[in-house]
Design goal:
single chain; mainly alpha; 3-stranded antiparallel β-sheet
């Protein structure tokens, strides 16, 4: 494998195609913030603004300023988005809405904890990029709100009837593993260590089921047991693989090679389980008992699942030298560039059917924004440079 050639390929795709696409098409020059609902050619087809995606784009351009170079166009893009979030994204008490109108009026209330996590990531990176301490304070106050809400993330907006089948999901401890490293420079070291310890335990000892060799999406909140229901049987291979590169980063940060090795082993089992043997690509959802699933999109092939899995595989190879990781990275690389890359316009498609054909030609929407593709291209580029 020509690591330098591949590194150049990922760098060029990021710097010459994907980033210019978002800089040109997503910035709202009138009201601030970003459009995320972009058609194949970058034209805006809906102007609602989703806090997840606003925070992710602030984070992305701030991170590039901090880790690549402090380009004025990147910093200006991040600051204008951060200012929009600062003014309109929360209710004044750092409870972050889910979505806003183009002008910044709330549409959906703060039911979703991930509005909070991506706001925290955004303002932590923006504080470093800009030197503005007000942004650091927003990140810290929002992180405090996350910890306060951790045991009941949706609060009064939860739909579950209390007491019947209390469940907890994998997504929050998974994100906190990454978030802890994103903001550790702003938070009391003892609190960061405690957060890391709790999240590592949840991911690796609770949601990871040793007997299955896999991570489940939901468990009983009362005793951490498996639940035989649609939600309780659900496995999301992409979530698991993304989480494993977060764990590898934590293993490196903590000086724990055995943790890295364990994460690599779980990642390899997950991708072997989740790979579609007939058409290629990774299934979106699976049922651990092989039953029919509730998600009609279970067999779709999604952009983020594949690029996060590619990060996990190349990072696993970089940190352990495991040849199976490199083989899987090569397989994912070929699948992604053949199926997700648009041959005519910049940015990647997000949604394919099971056969790998484009299902939706959009480049951004309610869930897809300026995040997984550029973050993945950046991560893979930098790792490949270190592998050469």
């Amino acid at each position: 494998m020509d690591f330098q050639h591949l590194a150049d390929q990922y760098r060029s795709e990021l710097m010459d195609s994907v980033l210019p696409f978002w800089l040109e098409h997503s910035q709202d020059k009138t009201y601030g913030g970003y459009f995320s609902c972009l058609d194949r050619d970058g034209s805006v087809y809906d102007t609602d603004k989703f806090i997840w995606l606003q925070g992710r784009e602030v984070w992305l351009f701030s991170m590039l300023c901090n880790k690549v170079e402090k380009r004025k166009e990147w910093l200006d893009c991040a600051i204008q988005g951060g200012e929009f979030l600062r003014k309109y994204g929360h209710d004044g008490k750092y409870d972050w809405y889910f979505s806003l109108t183009r002008e910044g009026k709330p549409i959906i209330d703060p039911y979703n904890i991930f509005s909070y996590t991506f706001a925290t990531m955004a303002f932590a990176q923006l504080a470093m990029a800009s030197g503005n301490d007000e942004y650091a304070q927003i990140a810290k106050k929002t992180f405090d709100r996350i910890l306060e809400k951790r045991s009941n993330p949706k609060g009064k907006w939860t739909k579950a009837h209390p007491g019947t089948r209390p469940m907890k999901d994998f997504a929050l401890p998974m994100i906190l593993c990454n978030l802890a490293l994103e903001i550790e420079q702003l938070i009391d070291p003892k609190l960061i260590e405690e957060t890391i310890d709790v999240c590592l335990h949840e991911v690796m000892d609770v949601f990871y089921q040793k007997d299955l060799g896999l991570i489940v999406e939901n468990l009983s909140a009362s005793d951490n047991s498996l639940v035989d229901s649609f939600e309780g049987r659900s496995i999301n291979p992409g979530h698991s693989l993304e989480a494993m590169w977060f764990i590898m980063d934590l293993g490196k940060r903590l000086g724990r090679p055995e943790l890295i090795q364990h994460a690599v082993e779980i990642a390899l089992r997950t991708i072997e389980y989740g790979w579609d043997k007939q058409y290629g690509g990774i299934f979106y959802f699976m049922d651990r008992l092989g039953h029919p699933q509730q998600q009609l999109e279970w067999d779709q092939k999604l952009w983020w699942v594949h690029i996060e899995s590619a990060i996990a595989m190349i990072k696993g190879y970089q940190l352990t030298g495991n040849q199976k990781c490199l083989d899987w990275f090569e397989k994912l690389h070929q699948y992604m560039w053949e199926h997700f890359k648009d041959p005519e316009f910049p940015e990647w498609f997000g949604y394919l059917n099971r056969r790998g054909e484009v299902l939706l030609p959009l480049k951004g929407g309610k869930w897809k924004g300026c995040f997984h593709v550029p973050r993945g291209l950046f991560q893979i580029w930098k790792i490949l440079e270190q592998c050469k």
